[in-house]
Amino acid sequence: MAVKTWSLRQVTTNGTPASVLWWDEAAAATAATSVTGWTVAKTAAGNYRDLSNGSEVAGFSATISPAAAVPTSDANYPSATTYAPPTLINSTDSISTLYEYNGVFPAGTWTFSFPVIAVGAGGTQDGRIGIRVYRGLRSGTAFASVTQITSARLVGTTVTNLATATAQTSTVTWAAPAFDLQNEFLIVKIGWEITGATNNNASDVLLRWGAGATIVSPTFKKFRHIIT
């Protein structure tokens, strides 16, 4: 048994969009800035926006994000195509593990680290990540039988005066119950909360991937077989 560590990774395989992010156990790449994130502009504190994996989005609102609705898959993703490994799910509002898992995690502490940086403009903007964690099967390139594991939205530490020169990390800590995965993906639904407004319409927040962008779990024990 050992802890699991996943790093955010941009994967390009068999036509998969290079900008899409997955959690992967491979050695972390050199840290880099993705195109996934949010344009916060001059939006006031107390507004939220879901992630859109592979793009930078605006359109914040007072609706708390991420909501409890199950993660969605991109309906335009070509379901007839076989990807490797073994089928990549292109999620719109979440980031899933690259592979399925078959085993059990005991109750314990999980740590989710999300380095972020401004690219368009920095300034006085403050904010934090919010997440919900799910498990789910796949059907083609869509999620199926998705179940939320977290009992509520979890919030990360706040980044302040986010600038273009230096990344900051919003860290989420989860005191998780024991749960198992039965040939299922781990899926992290993500949103951004503005906690401090800026005065620049170009201000944005982009996720960093590679080194420093990680999930660290408690020990994981693989199932030898599934009893049905």
Describe the structure.
The protein has 228 residues and is mainly β. The chain has one domain: Jelly Rolls (Sandwich). 0% of the residues lie in helices and 48% in strands. It has no helices and 15 strands. The protein has strands at residues 2-10, 21-24, 32-39, 47-50, 56-57, 94-96, 101-105, 108-117, 126-139, 142-148, 154-155, 168-176, 179-196, 204-209, 214-222. It has a 15-stranded mixed β-sheet that branches.
Mean pLDDT: 88
Largest sheet: 15 strands, mixed
Sheet-strand content, in percent, reads: over 45%
- Helices and strands, in order, run as EEEEEEEEEEEEEEE
Radius of gyration, in Å, reads 17 Å
CATH structural architecture: Sandwich
* CATH class categorisation: Mainly Beta
Based on DSSP secondary structure assignment, what is the total number of beta strands?
15
Low-confidence stretches: 82-86
Number of helical elements: 0
CATH topology: Jelly Rolls
Structural class: mainly beta
Count of separate structural domains: 1
In whole angstroms, the N-to-C terminal distance is 23 Å
Helix content: under 10%
Mass-distribution shape: globular
